[in-house]
# Entry
Amino acid sequence: MNTGSAQHVDSQEDAATVRLLATGLQLYRAHQFEAAIHAFTNILQLHPELLQANLMMGMILFQLRQYDQARPYLNKVLDQEPNHVSALDTLSNIEFYSNRYDAARPLFEKIISLNTEHADAYHRLSIIHFKASHYDEALRCINRALELKPKSHVYWTNALDMYKAEPKLRVGEGIAQKLILS
# Structure
């Protein structure tokens, strides 16, 4: 996960901010999200544009399923760095889990354009295409996800569920055989 910052806190008077960033990251990694929010909120009061603090707030609020509160922080990161994969990934998942597929689709596509081996982006994009009755695209995306993570039970299950729901995909026997063999 890239939690690096395009902006650096580098003056001596900001040493407290650096310590607070480190503390906030430790709290995040320990899943002490409320305490981490407090640390990053304090940082953002002093440095509202600090990329890393905005990213971490967005990621924490995503973990807490506070999607509406997370979006502005992630958008602030993307305003500064439009290709920031961690921010794109988190925001795309927020849109996906909010059933805002029209908003999620271009985000997943952008992630894939930046990282052609992002299996989860292909997987979620396959679901979006399937729900929109774009079966060829759904099949292309789920196949790519399975190429990247051939042992993913979740991907295989979703591929099989797609086939059961839409026989036009005509891939079920191959999927069933691979499930039996794996």
User: Anything to note?
Assistant: The longest helix spans residues 15-29. The CA atoms of residues 1 and 75 lie 18 Å apart. Residues 1-9 have pLDDT under 50 and may be disordered. The radius of gyration is 19 Å.
